[in-house]
Amino acid sequence: MANKPKIAARLLVGLALLLVAGALVLALMATKDKSPATVSQGNNATETPPNATKEQNSGTRVKISNDRHELFAVLNDSPTARDFLSMLPMTIAMKDYSGSGKIGYPDRKLSAEGAPARIAPAVGGFTYYAPYGDIAIWYTDFAPEESLFELGEITEGLENLKNLEGQVTFEEVADR
User: What letter does residue 163 receive in the DSSP assignment?
Assistant: First the structure.
């Protein structure tokens, strides 16, 4: 009978340790959510982490079109955007992704070596998701993502993006 209090005390200590560990995990998660890479809920602003640099637009225009709609993007000068440009012209199947954008898969993955990640894509963002090798164009802001690289931005025809599905052609076009 003397062992029952000792067992109960050990169980309470174990339970207390689990609660403390859980509280520490929650505190770490809350700290991570307050990093500069998060999206502000109040004004939909995004911040870039201090070690990432936004690539300047290269001025290279890309026409994105299907049989009914067209958009134009300007690529940045990142290694990933240059690799994408080397694949043009190309036609790929595009589909809706999570009610936030359109995605499609080029014939091969792009190089993401040395390219800064976009982190939090915004409306009109033209991006590449390295783990799956897909191109994504956003018509809403989207959650921060470490493996999402900015290729450029949509400069014309953004209103057509929600209707851009099926076989979509990407081709370099001359500046206006």
Answer: G
Helix (H) or strand (E) holding 101: strand 101-104
* CB burial of residue 76 (10 Å; 0-12, 13-18, 19+): buried
Give the pLDDT mean for 28-41: 36
Residue 131 has what DSSP assignment? T
Dist. CA 129–CA 110, nearest whole Å:
9
- What would the two tokens of residue 114 be? 């040395």
Provide the domain limits for residue 105.
57-173
At residue 168, the pLDDT reads 98
Q: How many Å apart are CA 159 and CA 129, to the nearest integer?
A: 23
Residue type, 47: E
pLDDT tens per residue, range 145-156: 888 999 999 999
Per-residue model confidence as pLDDT tens digits over 78-96: 999 999 999 999 999 999 9
pTM of the model: 0.67
**152 and 56 Cβ atoms separated by less than 8 Å:** no
Q: Are residues 67 and 152 in the same domain?
A: yes
Split into its structural domains, the chain has a count of: 2
CA gap 172, 61 in Å, rounded: 6
Nearest-CA neighbor of 110 among 92, 90, 85? 85
